[in-house]
Amino acid sequence: MNQEPSTPEHEADASEPRGNTGTDWGRLVSTALVGTARRTVPTPPGLPERSENAAALLDLAVVETVRAKAGYVAHTATPIDPDPSDPLPEIGEAQAHRLDVILAGRPELLAEWLDLLVRSGRCVPRTRIPDLLDRAARDRGLRPAVAAAVGTRGVWLAGFNKPWSFITAEPMPGDAFDREAWEQGTPERRRRALRALRAQDPAAGRDLIRKAWPNESRGEARRDLLETLEPTLGPEDEPLLDQALDDGNASVRGRALSLLVGLPEGAHAHRLRGYLRRRLRVVPDAPNPVHLENVDPDDPELLRDLALVAAKTRARAKDPRPQDEHRERHQVLITHTPLDVWTELLDTTPGGVLTRVGEDDLLREAIIDAVGLRGDATWARAVLDHPTIGLPRMVGGSVHDLQRQRIRQLLAPLPVDERCERIRAVIGRTKGKITLCQVLTALATPWTRELSADVVEVLSRSTDRRSPTDTHAHQRLCVIAAEYMPPEHLDLLPENSPNEEEAHEHLRLRDTLRFRLDMHKELS
After folding, report:
1. How far, in Å, CA of 69 to CA of 22, rounded?
2. pLDDT tens across 33-71, in order?
């Protein structure tokens, strides 16, 4: 009876390879010992078929030796589905090279380049997608533009790197509701699916939010659900937002209140009007003719409608913060109440309202914030044109961050040409280039040719190089001009700086505008 030869004792030692590769090294050794004539040798993966078993065995031994030295561990993996094709054509080499230059040394121009790319109807090459996702991971403001630029390929790639997962929540053209993504997807995919449904069928999206709300234990998740209402917000959404005012999470209540501002004819807005009417007192001959009574800190209905938590019972006399809380309640009530209540109660125009409350700093500042929040062009013009609180007075001194934000909000509802004309009107009143820089950044829009010419004229003025403040202001103004001046206004700048000491900043400004001009031409 034929028997298989026994394995020699030393074969066990030989079967332990140097560096565990997870492969059957011992089988190779035993095959060599018993002879290739008595045991079949498989063809090594990736190598051509060999007619001689001995040669095939040696080939396989070489492969396994190299794997062992490289630290290879045998494993299996699920094949990765290829990235989806993008229907948009990719940009050419010249545009891709310009993107590389921007990423390497001109990051301030990336948002503008992405906007031009999206409007051109093209997409970025695959090799640039990781760099763009990395930038957007660090800068939230870039995310919508990056999402539009990287498209479905970017979403596919984000599945392999968690820090890029934010991109899966960004809406994209052609999005449709995906029930599987809503029921089983990540929070980002669920948000995107819900946005798509809201765009197609607001009522169906609202019903999904109602059903999901009780099961969302995290305040951030509930706030995200509310965020999806904003693009298609309507009167039918008010009951859901009103319910959110009772939420235990302050950020959820605050977001619900900010969305209710967009429903000026809703029940919540009418309740705020009622609160204000009951507390407003007008005494025509008094130094401050308009007076707003204190908001009762123990009025639960009012505090709820203002998204504020009721004050805890405490000894008010010993509390150092009652005045701060009083101002906060006043601020929230005035800011979120529709502006028409003021013209109704005082029977005057928006400008007249501002004049009547002009001596009360709390009322005046809160009404200005309400105008900025609501984006009402008529009220914005009334504030900007007011002789004592208007734009010339705002820029008459140092424009701090809060003031700059207010100017930006007041200018936002106006046409671009009007915004630029208003800035031109106050340029001569600004005290130096520092204030001009602050006002121009509040404009936050490309300039008209006339405004560009005015800024070029300011840049041509001599700077006191002995003053670090003046030097910094001039450099800052050049940076702002490089960002906001339309590149086709390059011809307004002389070839050489009129002031030799400022030649470097001048040439850098010209270089940036020329770079942007080429960028626009490439993506036009």
Report:
1. 13
2. 878 777 777 665 555 666 677 877 888 888 878 877 887
Q: Are residues 439 and 290 in the same domain?
A: no
Assess if residue 420 is contained within a domain: no
Closest to 371 in 3D by CA, of 414, 400, 401, 328:
414
**Boundaries of domain holding 453:** 428-524
Interacting residues of 443 by C-beta distance below 8 A, sequence separation 6+ = 408, 411, 419, 420, 423, 484
Report if residue 232 sits inside a domain.
Answer: yes
Domain total in the chain: 4
Picking from 389, 415, 446, the residue at the C-terminal end of a domain is 389
CA atoms lying within 13 Å on the CB side of residue 451: 25
Please indicate, yes or no, whether residues 493 and 438 belong to a single structural domain of this protein: yes
> Comparing C-alpha atoms, which of 291, 296, 294, 406 is closest to residue 360?
291
Local structure of 470: helix, strand or coil:
helix
Last residue of a domain, one of 260, 275, 296: 260
Q: State the burial class of residue 347 (Cβ atoms within 10 Å of its Cβ: 0-12, 13-18, 19+).
A: exposed
Q: Which residues, including other chains, have CB under 8 Å from residue 227's CB and lie 6 or more apart?
A: 191, 255
384: nearest Cα among 400, 401, 366, 372: 372
Cβ proximity of 131 and 103 under 8 Å:
yes
Could you tell me which residues come within 8 angstroms of residue 311 by beta carbon, excluding any fewer than 6 positions away?
Answer: 297, 298, 303, 325
Question: Tens of pLDDT along 222-281?
Answer: 999 999 999 999 999 999 999 999 998 999 999 999 999 999 999 999 999 999 999 888
Helix (H, G, I), strand (E, B) or coil at 83: coil
